[in-house]
Each structure stands twice: as C-alpha cells, then as structure tokens.
Structure prediction request, 341 residues.
Amino acid sequence: MRYNTLGGTGLLVSEICLGTMTFGGGSSIWTAIGELDQKAADDIVVKALDAGVNFIDTANVYSAGLSEEITGKAIVNSGRKRSDVVLATKFNGATGEGPNDRGASRKHIMDSVEQSLKRLGTDYIDLYQVHGQDMLTPVEETVRALEDLVSAGMVRYVGCSNWAGWRIMQAQGIADNRGWARFASLQAYYTIAGRDLEREIAPVLRDQKVGLMVWSPLAGGLLSGKYNRDGTGPDGARRTNFDFPPVNKDRAFDCIDVMQEIAKAHDVSVARIALAWLLHQDIVTTVIVGAKTVAQLEDNIAATEVTLSPEELAKLDAVSALPPEYPGWMIKRQNEGRADS
Prediction:
C-alpha cells in the first residue's frame, strides 16, 4: 500500500480508501447498494486496516445515518487507535423533512456535524466534505462555517464532492482572501469509461493542489467484467437493480474488451485492471472502494499490485480517450509548437 499527501496538506492517506456506502441498507436505493450489518462491516474494516488502508469514507445520508453508526463502531471494534484512522464523512443531502434540513448553509452544517460526531462516536472528523454543490447558499457562508469547525477542533480538514471547477476556484479564492481553511480534496466520479473531469476539473485540482478522491471507480460495478453488452449481469448485482452512475455503455464495453485482454495477460480480474488504470493516473490521490464481501475487498485492494506497461496504458488510453470538445481542440491547435498545454 502506498500513501499520498491529501492535496496540499501534510496528511498521508492510503491510495485505497474504504467506502462504507454498503453498510446499513434500509429502504430506497440503500437496499440495492448494500445491507451489511455490524459483524460484516467489522470484518471488512479489519481486513482493510490489515492491508494498510488508513482512510475510511462515509456520509450522513448513507442508509439515513446508519452507515456512520456502523462505521464508528467498526473502528472501535477493530482495536485500532482512533488516531491511526483518517475518517471522512460528508454533509449536504436531506436529513429531515424541514426546509433547512439539507444544503450547505451555516445552520445545516452546524446541525449536521453534531449529528455525525454523535453517530461516529468520535470528537473530531479528519475530513469533512460538502456532499454536493448547493447553488442556493452563498459559497462564502459555507466556507466560513467550515473554517469555524476547523478552528473549534471539530474538523481537521475540509473538502467538497461533485463540484464544478469554477465553483472550487470560487471557494479557494474566498478562503485564501480571508485566511480560512481551503478545500484539501474533491471527491468525484472518475473511471476509464468516464473521463469527463479531465476537461476542466483536473486542471483546477493540479493548479490548486487539491487531492482527488475517486468514487464509484468501477462505475457501479459495470467495469467489473461481470456484465454483457446486452445488459445482462449476475443476479442481485448492483447495476441490475440500480443503474447508476450514467455511463455511455458502448464506450464502456469497448474499454472492457481491451481490459479483458490485459486482465488475461496479468491473470487478474477485469476490476483490478480498471482500478489499476486509475492508480496510474497522476491526478488521483485515492480510490474509494466499497465492498459487500471480504473477498471482493481483497480483489480490489490487490489492484495496487498491478503494474501496467506503457504499451498497455497506451491501449487503454486510446480506447477511452475523450472525443474532442471546444475549447479544448482550439487550445491544443493554438499551442502547437509551444510548451505542453
């Protein structure tokens, strides 16, 4: 297991982060994603920690808060010191029926952090993330509230998830101007079959020294190699019951065809190749993997041992390359013969 600094901070996090969306279950989408009870979650957390994973991510909306409760107890049950774990959670989604029970307002932030601390059974959160782009609340209000949490010692670092590049720049500019805590990370969707963030978001992350935490690295299981072009897959599989995130299926299966060849050459699963490709991208800080079984987790973690050759990376890059889009193609054209752009 390798460790990377989280953005421009000195915090070291494992290149694999354990996602806990499969913990809890309940109604709605959570049944399709996972219904792991405390014992099953305990086993997965111990296996991850034993493998060198020091980063665990959850959210207050996962299984209506039950995921946070199970995660907190699993860390205690593992016997590891709290300081050995970098614990991340998120806020923004609806936590009640009231008009102020969602979003990134000061009120919802303050209410949410207290509830998360209680459910997690801890007195501080290592990384507190805005779980979405709230276009109603002024960014300055959100950034100021997060600064207050850092100053109070309730939160160590702050980040965001599913934000546009321009919005991240807006928040960083406000934080820099006021001397407040900057976003250390962005949690975003990124896969070999969904490279959209390379257009505008990746350049912002590099420029602002913001770490990238990848969610759904297998595109909801689609890139596991278990599905066919006709849409059929194993019974009970996540994509069969919850077709998310949106993916261009034709492009995805073109990628899978190439990954199957490479997986066969390495004698590993297609899922490991999909994860290994991400781990070879310099913009990636950590890849979040969620598992329903210990065996699945072990296979995902084993992707850290896969080294792709330059030729294999070239094949994967070619089949997954984004189609040209303005202004990218014009920028490239106008900078031919100059420094890399």
Remarks:
- The first strand starts at residue 3 and ends at 5.
- The two ends are 32 Å apart (CA to CA).
- The beta strands are 3-5, 12-14, 16-19, 55-57, 86-91, 125-130, 155-161, 183-189, 211-215, 284-289.
